[in-house]
Amino acid sequence: MDRSFSGMLTVADRTALRSAATRVEYAPGSVICHQGDPSRNVLVVSHGRVKVSRFTATGEENVLAVRGPGEIIGELSAVDGGCRTASLVAVDRVCGLVLTAQALEKLCHARPAVAWALLRVVVSRHRATSDQQDLRTGPSLYRVGAVLLNLAHREADDMIATVPLSQRELAGIVGMSRETLVRCLKVLREAGIIRTRRNGVQILREEELRSMCGI
Asked: GO CC annotations (predicted)?
């Protein structure tokens, strides 16, 4: 079942969404917006993946999530009028729909199902934030497996899920040193469950990953 923002909408709702939006495209590595920007637009991803990051006062990057097709980004600023709480970067070629805050508000009034889907996204992400904080206290292998499964994205016709993040970025999300992460990835790789690449991890056998990590 598709639990993304677009996946919760009816065909008629998605048609109304497209009519109210502007189509955009970003090349791999493009900065879509910076943390602190005043923009109130939302982006609904149609194709590709977007990395969501926050930066500390010293410039250290903390990756929060990777958003894929069907997901909405920027909903908080659109609703409360505040500045961007995170920076967005296109991991690969990204196509999507951009709505202004005014267009989103008008759409929500006209189609309550859109407003309900947006609320479900906000609640789901709040829960995910709490779960991510809990992960920092569990066994190392469990924490790594849970984060990989949470961040994995699979194209519709692809049996291999991919986490498009470097080991440094993954270590930051899991809340462990890069050395500890490397040891955990080695265990999973030698078991034939994952394949590590230069800037990402491929999950080859999802059910075995869940079993081995106790998830």
From this structure: cytosol
